């Protein structure tokens, strides 16, 4: 029987579309593409999720690598968390599950400072009974250790837990240690899947 519902955050609870953000910010589509690839597709971005690099060092590396775009890089890195807006349908699901006495957990690859910002900003994140953030423990999904860390930290049974994530590799990793899963595509599909499991 499922007792614990584990949510990813980015693109599940909070919208995260950096390429759209950059296209809205700059009229030059080539500039948007360059900045998207240089920042959001970089190994440093992954390092920020992993907690192996901090924001200041990442900005310095981005600027050194792209000296003609230092102003743009600093602007983006100062403001990008503004695009992390709630996906209302999923937030509604989380709140309903909480009211139905399921335990709620968050398991996400997320930058250290960015997570602290959104956690302070959005009350629904505080409904979680427990939270594991990649940059806080230097582990990334889909590494199995991060899932086991969550289970161990909160004394959860995999067989009593279901994990919701938008990335297939993360879903497969959870399945491999016997956590039930839902591959998130949108909040309506999530509601249907949870209803089919008699969780909603």
From TrEMBL:
Q: Which organism is it from?
A: Clostridium rhizosphaerae
Record's protein name = HAD family phosphatase
Which NCBIfam families does the record match to this protein? HAD-SF-IA-v1, HAD-SF-IA-v3
- Specify the signal sequence span: none
């Amino acid at each position: 029987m499922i007792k614990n519902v584990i949510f990813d955050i980015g693109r599940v609870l909070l919208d995260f579309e950096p390429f759209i953000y950059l296209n809205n910010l700059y009229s030059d589509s080539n500039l948007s593409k360059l900045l998207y690839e240089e920042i959001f597709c970089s190994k440093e971005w992954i390092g920020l999720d992993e907690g192996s690099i901090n924001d200041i060092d990442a900005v310095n590396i981005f600027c050194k690598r792209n000296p003609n775009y230092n102003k743009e890089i600093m602007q983006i890195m100062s403001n990008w968390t503004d695009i992390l807006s709630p996906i209302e349908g999923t937030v509604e699901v989380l709140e309903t599950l909480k009211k139905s006495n399921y335990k709620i957990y968050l398991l996400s690859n997320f930058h250290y400072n960015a997570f602290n910002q959104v956690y302070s900003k959005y009350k629904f994140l505080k409904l979680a009974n427990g939270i594991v953030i990649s940059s806080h423990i230097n582990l990334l999904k889909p590494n199995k250790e991060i899932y086991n860390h969550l289970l161990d930290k909160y004394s959860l049974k995999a067989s009593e837990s279901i994990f919701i994530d938008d990335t297939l590799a993360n879903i497969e990793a959870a399945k491999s240690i016997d956590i039930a899963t839902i591959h998130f595509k949108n909040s309506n599909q999530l509601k249907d899947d949870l209803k089919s499991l008699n969780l909603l």
